[in-house]
Amino acid sequence: MAVVLIPDAVDDAPHGLWAKIVLTCRTPRRGRGFWYGLAIDVLWPFVMFCTRMRWHGGENIPRSGPVLVASNHVSFADPVTVTAYVLGHGRIPRYLAKAGLWKIPVVRSVLSGGKHIPVHRGTSKATDAYRDAVTAVENGECVLVFPEGTFTADPAGWPSVKQAKSGIARLALATGAPVVPIGHWGTQNVLPPKGRFPKLFPRQRTVIRTGPPVDLSDLLGQEQTREVVAETTRRIVAAITEQLELARGEKAPEAG
């Protein structure tokens, strides 16, 4: 694959013990909930000290107000590393997550306490997630979505617009909230999709890059037709892919 020329970008991940301690003290705590906050405190050292982080573009995440964050998904470690990244830039992410996770006792406490949103796919409650997500965004929350819903099916790890669900597009069109794209890479080496335990040593390099909000200005206010939703989804996935190209240092293959 052709190498992408990566523009100069400041690495705003904390490096060194003192920088990591300072960031730990500065991350937002009010609104986490006890169990979500506890999970963050337990897993935070894993991200800080067991991975080699590279963070770019964090200034694109608004420090307040409603925002939708859209990320690719390649590992079970993604919610941990991406949560740390978003927290490190001043926001508490609320996730759209499979309703089945609420059946796991400890996980249920973390998700409920953190005001995350269950997605009941294929049931009469399927519309509840959309309604609750709209409410969260309208209340000024940072809602984080993996548009593909699960790990990308592409063997090379590139996002697929065909796999992407329309939920985040509909949320963006309904609320007008900015959609900030994240492309990250390396977590599949920390915890492979079929792996049971994380690989802690040697420390694996993880890269997270965030771009400016996706330009949807010409689509906002239009009726949510199939074509409008599809185009919104395409733009969001394209923006994620662009950031992933920069994170990986290579060009994604042309869509067939």
TrEMBL record:
It holds the Pfam family Acyltransferase. Residues 67-187 form the Phospholipid/glycerol acyltransferase domain. InterPro entries: Plipid/glycerol_acylTrfase. Keywords: Acyltransferase, Transferase. SMART domains: PlsC. This is Lysophospholipid acyltransferase family protein. GO terms for molecular function: acyltransferase activity. It comes from the Bacteria. PANTHER family: 1-ACYL-SN-GLYCEROL-3-PHOSPHATE ACYLTRANSFERASE, POSSIBLE ACYLTRANSFERASE.
